[in-house]
Write a structure and sequence with these properties.
CATH topology of the largest domain: Tetracycline Repressor, domain 2
Number of domains: 2
Strand content: under 5%
Helix content: over 70%
CATH superfamily of the largest domain: Tetracycline Repressor, domain 2
CATH class of the largest domain: Mainly Alpha
Length: 174
Amino acid sequence: MRDATLDAAAALVAEHGIASVTMSQIAEETGIGRATLYKYFSDVEAILVAWHERQIARHLQQLAEVRDRAATPGERLEEVLIAYASLSQDNHGTELAALLHRGEHVTHARQQLRRFIRDLIVEGAKSGDLRSDIPPEELASYCLHALTAATTLHSRAAIRRLVSVTLAGLRPAS
């Protein structure tokens, strides 16, 4: 029931806009009573925040799966950055994104993501693939900030170029 409610709310918002969606519409779409819906969620925004939290967890899981498929530390970081940039490209610039990309759950997710990238950088520095003269936490922030440009890109090739330029800044000086 929870997943159906979250999915229905997100679909309705995508179709009609945030201001147009009501708890009654969500209840009707999911086939549950409005009173039951209110037992679990106080309003439409609470449903959308829960949906976003689920999406973030799925994205972090996807990044972990991408990491685990790559063979070397350098490949792991590159593939994760490509996947992250692709996710960023697909999920920004909407009214829904503006509403949901604030709040404590997003702050927590950004911290998790920064640690995830930092750990990949530490691994790459130990193998000699990445620079070790700058703290990994700073390099992780650099990567994440650089990849915010992906929100404006329109192709997989452009994302790969952006990641390539970002990675160039992580390689040891010759």
